[in-house]
Amino acid sequence: MNVLKIGFFLAVTALAVLAAREYVPREAIQAATERFTGGTASSSAAPSRHGFVDIPLPDGQSGHHVVIFAPANCPSDAAQRAEALARRLDDAGIPYTRSQNASFSTLSSQDEANRVMSVMNGPIPVVFVRKRAQANPEAEAVVAEYRGG
Asked: Which residues of the chain, if any, have pLDDT below 50?
């Protein structure tokens, strides 16, 4: 039942964020988020050198390889970016998997849920490298993040 509640909460939040993007300036959303979370940013909220943010792995993911979340067999620009990223990872010998959906049933705090939403609502593809993720990263940033450089 808790998984359903969290899933419903994430879906409603995603819709609210998408609607707010159209009508409210980004600075106002960020200020409201800081007020809601008490204005405290945890150290894990700081992005890595390559722009990846610490967030929990989606259910069923091990974190031992790169995960690319994007639509499959789709001619959209987002799907084509995911294809190009997959080719670059193949060329670099970096293991990856692809998925079309993600669920998070073990979020432990509102801060964690906010970080997940901020990444998952970004442009596709969303890419996880171990326990960090970024929306629509450059291929070289993914390679560098995976290699720890």
From this structure: 15, 18-20, 23-24, 26, 29, 32-44
pLDDT of residue 124: 87
Tell me the HSE value of 16 on the side-chain side, using a 13 A CA sphere: 11
Geometric angle at alpha carbon 65, from 107 and 77, rounded to 5°: 85
Q: Is the dihedral of CA 104, 110, 116, 117 positive or negative?
A: positive
Residue 113 and residue 116: Cα distance in Å, rounded? 5
The H-or-E segment that residue 18 falls in is helix 2-23
Q: How far apart are CA 68 and CA 29, in angstroms?
A: 27
Which residues have CB under 8 Å from 105's CB, separation 6+?
Answer: 2, 3, 6, 7, 59
- Find residue 128's DSSP bridge partners: 67, 133
Amino acid in position 2: N
DSSP class of residue 119? H
